[in-house]
Design a protein that fits this description.
The complex is a heterodimer of chains A (117) and B (112). Chain A is an all-beta fold. Helix content of chain A is 0%, strand content 50%. Chain A is built from no helices and twelve strands. In chain A, a hairpin with a 2-residue loop joins β7 and β8. The termini of chain A are far apart. Chain B is an all-beta fold. Chain B is built from no helices and eleven strands. Chain B is globular. Classes of the chains: A mainly beta (117), B mainly beta (112). At the A-B interface, β11 of A face β4, β5, β9 and β10 of B.
């Protein structure tokens, strides 16, 4: 069985601070995909990134960066110079059945990020 | 290209009533999923359709929940009779092998 743990329930920062959201996963599969989704106050789930288990390169997209470390089964997400618009619930998720990048997602509990002006 | 749509966006019903949620996937996406997030907890998988067939319904909580996908197009999720613990946000998602998984905006269900 697979499991995703986001130990941080809530994080509060002041604008322009950097913040890292932790994600630890468990799976017995060697091929799997990891995701981050953002849920803003409007409620929809917004896809941020997908990473497969064979690609451990870190990725940067603007103020967002992701650190994937198989050795520690972690896929952490960092927001640099946070902004109020970053306030949302962030979910880490895993697909490990069948080795496909689409399918049944296992989500973490979510981390509520609040960025104060 | 239109995204995944869900109707209604909000539903408030009383315990014992019936509610039907609808999901229209992205055109051409054979895979359709239902998920649910109960307040403060993780988003949990309910079931997976491939076209009109139920591929995996291991996450359905009990037999008060019935999902259908007529003709492999839109899907409905009926809760009958609704209980207080059914309150939450119900998400639908559709996926395509080469394009990824896309979520709808969710339906917020409140059972009083």
């Amino acid at each position: 069985a697979q499991k995703v743990t986001q130990a941080q329930t809530e994080i509060s920062v002041v604008e322009k601070e950097d913040v890292t959201l932790d994600c630890v996963y468990e799976t017995r599969d060697t091929t799997y995909y990891l995701f981050w989704y953002k849920q803003p106050p409007s409620g929809e789930l917004v896809f941020l990134i997908r990473r497969n288990s064979f690609d451990e390169q870190n990725e940067i997209s603007g103020r967002y960066s992701w650190n994937f470390q198989k050795s520690t089964s972690s896929f952490n997400f960092t927001i640099t110079a946070s902004q109020v618009v970053d306030s949302a619930v962030y979910f880490c998720a895993l697909i490990s059945a069948g080795g496909t990048s689409y399918g049944k997602l296992t989500f973490g509990q979510g981390t509520i990020l609040t960025v104060h002006p | 290209e239109a995204g995944v749509t869900q109707f209604p966006s909000h539903s408030v019903i009383e315990k014992g009533q019936t509610v039907t949620l609808r999901c229209d996937p992205i055109s051409g996406h054979d895979n359709l999923y239902w998920y649910r997030r109960v307040m403060g907890k993780e988003i949990k998988f309910l079931l997976h359709f491939v076209k009109e067939s139920k591929q995996d319904e291991s996450g359905m909580p009990n037999n008060r929940f019935l999902a259908e996908r007529t003709g492999g197009t839109y899907s409905t999720l009926k809760v009958q009779p609704a209980e207080l613990e059914d309150s939450g946000v119900y998400f639908c998602a559709s996926s395509h092998p080469r394009r990824g998984t896309f979520f709808g905006p969710g339906t917020r269900l409140t059972v009083l």
